[in-house]
Write a structure and sequence with these properties.
homodimer; 387 residues; alpha/beta; Aspartate Aminotransferase, domain 2; 3 domains; 11 helices; 36% helix; transaminase activity (chains A, B); PyrdxlP-dep_Trfase_major (chains A, B); pyridoxal phosphate (chains A, B); carbon-sulfur lyase activity (chains A, B); PyrdxlP-dep_Trfase_small (chains A, B)
Chain lengths: 387, 387
């Protein structure tokens, strides 16, 4: 067996540490001593708390993932039915799904390619993807814009967000060439936002605690990955970026995801589970917003979504996206209009790769703010007509 | 005033959100509504817990830093006297100091330079710096090796670790040209490892919870930064990388740092505070290791450190570094020797930019492992002589 003392964990060291994590104090007569790293276990007696070290589960490919969180994630996906989480899928935890997006760019690119790999997404796309991709001016990958216009005969990664941010549409890849690579960002594929029509089963899928439960201050995201090599590269990325993910946040996320899953499965549950609660709220808000939209005399309009059968709720349900994607009359700048006429700050179409008749409005605000938003939007018609 | 709903926080949005964080429910008659972002505050009633959003302190430059942690960090540095933390210094929290190292590379580099800025450190240097610098093949910065050999007439960033990892030496910059930029990694500048001779007061200093207290699983590091522009760029980096730092980890770190500071200041404290405890342990271990080293008949030797007056303890103290920097006889490969003869895994000199007669041994293991290490090292002399 092996005794492990780790400083900054590296994959090469992982296998030698495994046994130490399992049996830190019972040493066989002739163990290997690993003092190559510097895991500060020396202070354990002071803190009277065994096992605070860099490693959460040295047996696992993702050695910084707490087993409790791994279990909670898989259980919740099984209960909700929104993603395939069979045992051969790898879960990689990150400091929010943002870090995992970076990790996937790294994992799907290759230092052997002569040019950076192109990263594309169909417009309107999440406004942070271009910035996140360009940020460090990596030679590994580069932002290449709207996937709908992509015509280069070069390797690429397509980022697919479904339901999409900003417009709530259900999406698949649009480029579809042989050997393509894709990142499926499923942050909003939960019953409060959209009907759960099937278990998503893509090569690399991203989820985030913040959009599922509202706990944005707990920086926990996870990837579900089919290919071990890709998962291992992601783990490497998170090692080099931040040496894993805080176990306090993982523990809290595990508890909360567990509570939600238990709630959903409890036949005696009297109240609503989180998804029922969220869906009711979102549905009410969307109803109110659509009413205001219809009375706006075309000043702004909203997308329509197909009703679909949700396997989680067992009924046909509407999409109630986390953002409303407003389109104003042609010739109007929707973001400026809302800001100047109504003191409503939104994010305009150009941030998402489309024209300025569009703007994105959060549907996840507090009640008092949302009601005020409705009031302002209802009043805007007169303002614009009187302009 | 402003009502703020934020998705991924961006500096531009920060000022409009501030008031919302202060007064989220009392709206004046004509507030600005910020629905540009998507902070999921909608679920607050369900969680019956106000204020879980991306923002910890929207009034602060580092908007994801919990005020409790900011206070705890400054208080502990004041109690220990190891760093200047006047109110004009900016604290930036990160997912471990590793993320802050990346953030500083970003903050100290410039997209306007024609070439990547050179990153150097005097050998032996921390073995992760080269990997962290090269990792994403950024066009902003590149690894340029041993600072002692740096002779290019180009901009550079010098990384200074003091006490140094791996060799425990107290260090300053070695290149010292006009307009130079430096990152001071002070992870080990705590009383258990070295005498605290003065308040460190560099432009950008890094500290990490894991080395100060041993809580490596809590991914919390912090930077103390003089220049607001640099601090703001670091905040931007952490936004784009991970949208901040989990508040659970920050809360726990704040509590623990607070306990330590209180312990240190308590005149009625009967036992040892963490630093006294740590220093006693480290001093005992170093005593034992030196004894083994002296009896090794020159098979390996250890660095000597000057005794110095520690202002924290009020006495002359020794350095007791977190790593032992072993040097074997000329012609021997120290890492291979320990591995092959004694089943001791260490990290050899070449990882740190020097020759293979050196190797690094963690001094922060559990007691049972450390005792075994001593036994093996004591036995090695016979093994080598009989070779």
């Amino acid at each position: 067996m092996v005794v492990g003392l780790v400083e900054k964990a590296v994959p090469a060291a992982k296998s030698t540490v495994s046994s130490a994590v399992k049996k830190p104090t019972s040493l066989s007569s002739d163990p290997i001593i690993n003092v190559a790293l510097g895991d500060p276990t020396i202070y354990e007696p002071y803190w009277k708390k065994m096992g605070d070290s860099y490693f959460c589960n040295a047996m696992n490919l993702c050695w910084f993932l707490l087993p409790e969180l791994d279990n909670a994630i898989r259980t919740l996906h099984r209960v909700v039915g929104n993603a395939m989480v069979d045992d051969d899928r790898f879960i990689v935890v990150g400091n929010g799904s943002t870090q995992l997006f970076h990790a996937l760019l790294y994992a799907l690119s290759s230092p052997d390619l002569p040019e950076p790999i192109n990263v594309v997404a169909a417009a309107p796309f999440y406004s942070s993807y271009p910035e996140e991709t360009k940020f460090l001016q990596s030679k590994l990958y580069k932002w290449a814009g709207d996937a709908n216009c992509y015509d280069k005969d070069e390797p690429y990664i397509e980022v697919v967000t479904s339901p999409n941010n900003p417009d709530g549409s259900i999406r698949g890849t649009v480029v579809n060439r042989e050997g393509s690579k894709a990142i499926h960002d499923l942050a909003y594929y939960w019953p409060q936002y959209a009907p759960i029509t099937s278990k998503a089963d893509h090569d690399a899928m991203l989820f985030t605690f913040s959009k599922a439960t509202g706990h944005a201050g707990t920086r926990i995201g996870w990837a579900i990955v089919k290919d071990k090599v890709i998962a291992a590269k992601m783990v490497k990325f998170i090692e080099v970026s931040s040496i894993g993910v805080s176990r306090e946040a993982q523990l809290r996320a595990a508890k909360i995801l567990g509570v939600i899953a238990d709630d959903c499965r409890n036949p005696d549950h009297k109240g609503e589970n989180l998804f029922q609660y969220g869906r009711r709220l979102m549905s009410e808000r969307w109803g109110k917003l659509r009413e205001v939209g219809m009375k706006s005399n075309g000043v702004f309009s909203l997308p329509k979504y197909p009703r679909d059968y949700c396997k989680f709720t067992g009924e046909y349900t509407d999409s109630n996206p986390a953002f409303a994607w407003l389109k104003s009359k042609e010739g109007l700048n929707c973001e400026n209009l809302l800001r100047d006429k109504s003191k409503i700050i939104t994010r305009g179409g150009p941030s998402f790769g489309v024209d300025s008749t569009y703007t994105r409005v959060s549907m996840l605000s507090r009640d008092v703010e949302f009601e005020l938003l409705l009031e302002r939007l209802a009043a805007i018609k007169g303002t614009v007509n009187g302009n």
